[in-house]
From TrEMBL:
Recorded superkingdom: Bacteria
Signal peptide: none
Record-linked PROSITE patterns: HTH_LACI_2
Pfam family, one: Peripla_BP_3
Protein name: LacI family transcriptional regulator
SUPFAM superfamilies in UniProt: lambda repressor-like DNA-binding domains, Periplasmic binding protein-like I
Domain HTH lacI-type intervals: 7-61
Stored Gene3D superfamilies: 3.40.50.2300, lambda repressor-like DNA-binding domains
Keywords assigned by UniProt, alphabetized: DNA-binding, Repressor, Transcription, Transcription regulation
Length: 350
């Protein structure tokens, strides 16, 4: 049986037409290159199967075998909510890429629409849940399904913010940090009248974003009155658009922070109805889970969803190797992209 050739830094450099020095800096997380270059290097390293000595040492310390004699199959549960399909695709991509490196696989299962305990329990029994190697619990699933999955006596990793004292490992992209990055960037451009737009109640992550906004604004010396912002769940789109227009007219914000990516197109529409252009009349930052092809220059914090999926896979393997260790909660923070949808305040005052 032929011995697999060891991948070197030169292999990655040649693949991307970069210098070995740039590749080495990227893998060590050092500054001095664009975020696009760093991502390309990390992706090539993953694809070619390269690991730094530090990575291999870290796997050994955590007792995670690089090669597994018994490939495992994990489950990724969703409830078929079309609204979050792209989000789930990114998580699944991260899970698959990492698990495949170790010889394991992940299968997606679509849960029944009903949230009744009896229906879900019957479905789990039909899926032979007792024989699962482990389960990944993503965000935006129904509460009843989440509770039953958390109660299973198999390895579980939440890709979400867990409830307090939940007995489970969790990994999640840090939306709170993303809000702080956004407010601090707007403050650096002298914006203090910031209109927050976003659901604050439907998911745990949404309430965390709103709380982070209030705290970040307090750091910037600004008090937040909830009546001056467009928050809560959207029940009627026309009413919501009218509310955005009313807040734009009454509070006269110089910047908008769109906290939920699915609102972005509607925010542009509401601003156009109110006679406000972006960024000419009002700057904009939006939290996005992927590159917006229609707005490649959108100023935004990177929500590292795929990377969180990859980290969740590592956490699952760690849990299998360390079943008696305390539960751990991991927040994955992305970088910030200063695009072209935020202008300094002097632009509006000039």
């Amino acid at each position: 049986m032929p011995i697999k050739k060891k991948v070197t830094l030169q292999d990655i450099a040649s693949e991307l037409n970069l210098t070995i020095h740039t590749v080495s800096k990227s893998l060590r997380g050092l500054p001095g290159m664009s975020e696009e270059t760093r991502r390309a290097v990390l992706e090539a390293a993953r694809r070619l199967g390269y690991r730094t000595k530090e990575q291999e040492r870290g796997l050994a310390v955590e007792h995670i075998p690089i090669f597994s004699a018994s490939p495992r199959v994990f489950k990724f549960i969703i409830n078929g909510n079309i609204l979050h399909s792209k989000l789930h695709q990114l998580i699944l991509q991260g899970l698959q890429e990492t698990l495949q490196e170790f010889g394991h696989t992940v299968q997606t299962l679509i849960a029944p629409e009903s949230d009744e305990a009896g229906v879900i329990e019957e479905w789990l029994e039909q899926q032979n849940v007792a024989y699962w190697n482990g389960v990944f619990i993503p965000p935006a699933i129904k509460p009843g399904l989440e509770r039953l999955l958390l109660s299973l006596k198999i390895p579980r990793v939440m890709i979400n913010f867990p409830m307090p004292a939940e007995k489970v490992d969790s990994v999640i992209w840090d939306v709170g940090a993303a809000i702080w990055q956004s407010v601090r960037y707007l403050a650096s451009m002298k914006h203090t009248r910031i209109l927050y737009i976003g659901d604050t109640v439907r998911h745990r992550g949404f309430s965390i974003r709103w709380r982070a906004f209030k705290e970040a604004m307090e750091e910037a010396g600004q008090n937040v009155n909830s009546e001056d912002h467009v928050i809560g769940a959207i029940s009627d789109k026309e009413q919501w658009i009218a509310e955005v227009g009313e807040k734009l007219k009454r509070t006269k914000p110089t910047a908008i922070l769109s906290a939920v990516q699915y609102d972005l197109a509607w925010i542009y529409y509401a601003c156009s109805l109110a006679g406000r252009s972006i960024p000419g009349d009002c700057s904009l930052i939006s939290l996005e889970d992927d590159l917006n092809e229609l707005l490649p220059g959108l100023t935004r914090p990177f929500l590292v969803v795929r990377e969180a999926g990859a980290r969740a896979a590592e956490r699952m393997l760690w849990r299998l190797a360390n079943p008696s260790k305390p539960y751990e909660h991991t927040f994955v923070q992305g970088a910030f992209y200063a695009g072209n949808t935020v202008l300094p305040l002097k632009h509006f005052e000039g």
